[in-house]
Amino acid sequence: MAARMSSKTIVDAICRSRKQLVSVVNYGTSSAHGTELDVIARGWLYDSLWIATRSAPDDAKLGSIAAAVEEVGDEAMETNVANAESTIDGATAESEVVDDVAAEQRRQILDTVAASEGFFKHQQRGEPDLSYEEKREIAEKTRVDYEVDFHVTEIERRSRRGSSRALSVQTKNRRYEALERLKTGGEYFSDKEMRRRNPLLFEQMIGRYMTEKEKLDLDKMDFSTLTFSGLLMEHIDRNEVTSLRRQQQDLEEATFEESDSDSEEEECEDDAPHVSATEKRLLRNEFMNTMYESFLSGKDKDYDYDSVDNNADFDSLQTRQHDEEEKYFDAEEPEILDTVA
Length: 341
What we know:
Domain CCD97-like C-terminal: 173-271, 274-332
Structural class: mainly alpha
Distance between the termini: 33 Å
Order of helices and strands: HHHHHHHHHHHHHHHH
Pfam families: CCD97-like_C
InterPro entries: CCD97-like_C, Ccdc97-like
Largest sheet: none
Region (Disordered): 249-275, 298-341
Protein name: CCD97-like C-terminal domain-containing protein
Number of helices: 16
């Protein structure tokens, strides 16, 4: 815990500054050097407040101290100084309690770690197991381990970001890496899954231009491995897609205030205009880019973004090499170099 001046020392310093302040100001009012002395007096006042600010546990509790300094009457000064001293004593006591709690929590953590069967260090074959005291000593030293410091700093950085919606460069890079992996493996960006996430846009840009065979292939189910629960889930998914599409249609109609009736819309969908293969490809590319952007922006509601944003496994090889170089050149303490070696 950082050393603090006692409340009596703080108040005594303020009293001395207060008396000097009153003397100088009184002298300055009848002197040709009044302005000069007023500046000096203000300097003493600021010095006393600086002492209180640097020494008191909580800046928010310095109101009574400032009031004590500003009072002119000696009687009022004594009363306010007493109040200030009481305030500082209370704040200091609270701070000491917090420090004691933190120390106890730290002791409990070290005790729990030392009593565990976790990995502490590499040992030679036949070497006796580490004792409780040895484990605790190793755990104590990890407080200055560069890897621990790195993760603590990372947690603090995220907490400072708070509720900001702005994505960090690191988060963007990790999501892009996850996107590349999903594009080359899995079903996340298959027609079926993308239709489930955005059925209206899929129908407008791809579905309405598909042939009957393509539509049948899209909805085809593999009955050879289908179970009753799988069939039930497929039915539920299709109902959800239909419901979501209706909601999107209603929202679109409300936005653009279309006057066409439902029957006219259905007729329009049935009589989709003929488009060339090149136009189909352009529409598909535009749809895919929209879905990619939705993923990168964090708009896919069912996706677990925390598994990507907080996962260093999604840092690209180039990014990892750059980070390792920075760690190496930033390392100043010998024990950090030993740990890396």
